[in-house]
């Protein structure tokens, strides 16, 4: 079995001129014979050096295995199972020469497998890089499309915000008017409460006068009881003095009795007159209190009815304003669609949009009139209520 040699070249970049004759001479000096490497032209040599490293195996006959070297060294036997490789030095300071290295077959196989793995890994990396680049281009294209769509949406939203801001200004004016009306209603409510408090004060004063008159009546009743007791005492005195001076005592007693009877009748008449006067005054006060309570209840009921009516009108106005806002949005959509250039294909659609826009404008005008009419009604109700309260 012959000895095998490996020629491995670590090649420079494309365009450099490797020294192939020098490599042949080095092999002749080291091995003792020239390897069977065919001569290459300049173009073939440049192509060979530009390609990846190649492995060239040579088989030598047994008679060359014990040949003496040309540099005068002693005859030695080449080792079995060893592969020699020729490597060019990459150091720029050194001379351009080839160096012979020896490897075992197992090391050579491991190196070959390592090179194959590296090439496969580089191929995978290349495919992944180009695949990621395509995905990045697609994503960039999608992002540009999304940016254009978002810009269009932003323009639409700006126009929509402008229209809504104008609508909000008009609504703010209407709200200010309603707020002024509500303030006037609150003022009237405050006036009514003040009147109610005055009525309550009058009722309290009437109650105080009634209690004072009742106290006076009790005092008069007490005086009348005292007079009756005194009359009884006098009667007892008269009866006791009848035996001493019957006639005089009878006359005096009669006079005194008549005087006391007259005083008693006068006091009773005056007491009855004062009592009737106080009762009449109390009844008049009670009637005034009842009338004031009735007026207060009627005022509260009418105020609640007015509040309910005003609340219903406010809700109706709010619903009409919402409907008007929706109609304005539809009109804005039609106008934006009509702002596109008219062609023969969309001429019929343009006429339909124009008719729909006209009907929407008419409905909006009608709603404005209704809102104005309802606001007038609210103001009239408030004015009527104020006039009733002041009256």
TrEMBL record:
<keyword id="KW-0175">Coiled coil</keyword>
<protein>
    <recommendedName>
        <fullName>Myocardial zonula adherens protein</fullName>
    </recommendedName>
</protein>
<feature type="coiled-coil region">
    <location>
        <begin position="126"/>
        <end position="153"/>
    </location>
</feature>
<dbReference type="InterPro" id="IPR051375">
    <property type="entry name" value="Tuftelin_GRINL1A/MYZAP/CCD68"/>
</dbReference>
<dbReference type="GO" id="GO:0035556">
    <property type="term" value="P:intracellular signal transduction"/>
</dbReference>
<feature type="coiled-coil region">
    <location>
        <begin position="189"/>
        <end position="370"/>
    </location>
</feature>
<dbReference type="GO" id="GO:0031674">
    <property type="term" value="C:I band"/>
</dbReference>
């Amino acid at each position: 079995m012959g000895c095998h040699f490996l020629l491995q070249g670590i090649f420079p970049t494309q365009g450099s001129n490797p020294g192939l004759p020098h490599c042949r001479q080095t092999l002749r000096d080291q091995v003792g014979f020239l390897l069977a490497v065919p001569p290459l032209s300049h173009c073939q040599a440049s192509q060979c050096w530009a390609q990846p490293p190649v492995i060239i195996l040579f088989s030598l006959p047994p008679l060359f295995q014990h040949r003496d070297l040309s540099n005068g060294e002693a005859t030695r036997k080449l080792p079995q199972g060893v592969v020699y490789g020729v490597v060019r030095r990459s150091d720029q300071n050194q001379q351009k020469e080839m160096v012979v290295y020896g490897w075992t077959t197992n090391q050579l196989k491991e190196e070959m497998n390592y090179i194959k793995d590296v090439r496969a890994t580089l191929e995978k990396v290349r495919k992944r890089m180009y695949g990621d680049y395509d995905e990045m281009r697609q994503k960039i294209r999608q992002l540009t499309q999304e940016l254009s769509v978002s810009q269009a949406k932003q323009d639409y939203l700006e126009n929509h915000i402008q229209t809504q801001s104008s609508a909000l200004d008009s609504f703010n004016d209407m709200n200010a008017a309603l707020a002024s009306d509500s303030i006037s209603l609150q003022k009237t409510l405050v006036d009514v409460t003040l009147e109610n408090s005055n009525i309550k004060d009058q009722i309290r004063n009437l109650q105080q006068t009634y209690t004072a008159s009742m106290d006076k009546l009790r005092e008069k009743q007490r005086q009348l009881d005292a007079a009756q007791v005194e009359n009884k005492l006098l009667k007892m005195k008269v009866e006791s003095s009848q035996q001493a001076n019957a006639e005089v005592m009878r006359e005096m007693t009669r006079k005194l009795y008549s005087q006391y009877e007259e005083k008693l009748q006068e006091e009773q008449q005056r007491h009855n007159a004062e009592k009737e006067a106080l009762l009449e005054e109390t009844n008049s006060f009670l009637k005034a209190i009842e009338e004031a309570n009735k007026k207060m209840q009627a005022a509260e009921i009418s105020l609640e009815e007015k509040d309910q009516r005003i609340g219903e009108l406010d809700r109706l106005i709010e619903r009409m304003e919402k409907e008007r806002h929706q109609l304005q949005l539809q009109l804005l959509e039609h106008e934006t669609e009509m702002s596109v250039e008219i062609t023969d294909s969309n001429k019929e659609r343009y006429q339909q949009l124009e008719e729909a826009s006209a009907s929407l404008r008419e409905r909006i005008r009608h709603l404005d009139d209704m809102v104005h009419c309802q606001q007038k009604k609210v103001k009239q109700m408030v004015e009527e209520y104020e006039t009733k309260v002041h009256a």
